[in-house]
Amino acid sequence: MAEPPEVVKRECVFRGKKVVLEVQTVRAAGRTSRREVVLHPGAVAILAFPEPDKVLMERIWRYALEREMLEIPAGTLEPGEAPEACAARELEEETGYRAGRLERLLAIHPSPGILSERLEVFLAHDLKAGKPRPEAGEQIEAVLVPIDEALAMIQDGRVTDSKTVAALLFWERFMSESA
Amino acid sequence: MAEPPEVVKRECVFRGKKVVLEVQTVRAAGRTSRREVVLHPGAVAILAFPEPDKVLMERIWRYALEREMLEIPAGTLEPGEAPEACAARELEEETGYRAGRLERLLAIHPSPGILSERLEVFLAHDLKAGKPRPEAGEQIEAVLVPIDEALAMIQDGRVTDSKTVAALLFWERFMSESA
Fold it and tell me: Are residues B47 and B34 in the same domain?
């Protein structure tokens, strides 16, 4: 690539609880244009297999899509929180499971054209079941899904969450016994 | 899941060129809370193999991340545009390649916790090379990457774009000759 584009001006147009919306005036290849950027604190997801050949997933209501989704457990980083600590916290809050050890699996940028979010996926080891402690107003139902069924749901489009698709296919391709 | 949550009030706090930011007051499990939702028109991506065992990718500057990324070609839907038409247009504009046929491969929701975006991935067939016609100020460099190298870059974290990770692993798992 030639010269990297330059941000000439940043205008914060909305500062929310979770995201900040910035309008940037940028200069690239001699032209000035405006870009909308959604600044996000970052997130984590957890791939966990509490029983042989079963993956821990959640039925969760997604306001942005106005529907329920089937996803692996995940959450947004609190200010100053380390990804691994966030993963341990979210896993326990949402599903009740405690991980003896969390292994970094991969990181993804969910939507780099508009969103600064970076999401780190951890593989959970040495799981112990417990009681979930959902946040007020959160409706999350933890479910154990046979791996073959989760893969079939990716193939036929019933599972479409990008972190879930990426994490499960990544794990199967690069990490599982059969890989 | 019990009763689906209900959106009590929608407040548009920013209407941009590409996204709309809405603050929703929602009622779930008897509690009222506020949610930030980024409304996005939807997007497409294209998985193309112009040469045997080589995948078409792009080096593209991402303002949201302030860095260059290596991704498969993609673009945002224009108002009223069909995903397949958008895929054909973006592929040709950004890389110069024309597809004789586009096959729907999978759809993903890149970041369902905050973003309404749905992204559809097409597999391009019968490719013909041509001249790219980039939009003003866009810096995109098309590159042909051996599939094995692209997979190695997913494994070691040099490729982190969620649509690229999901599309390549999906294709290899469910669509390629060796699957």
Answer: no
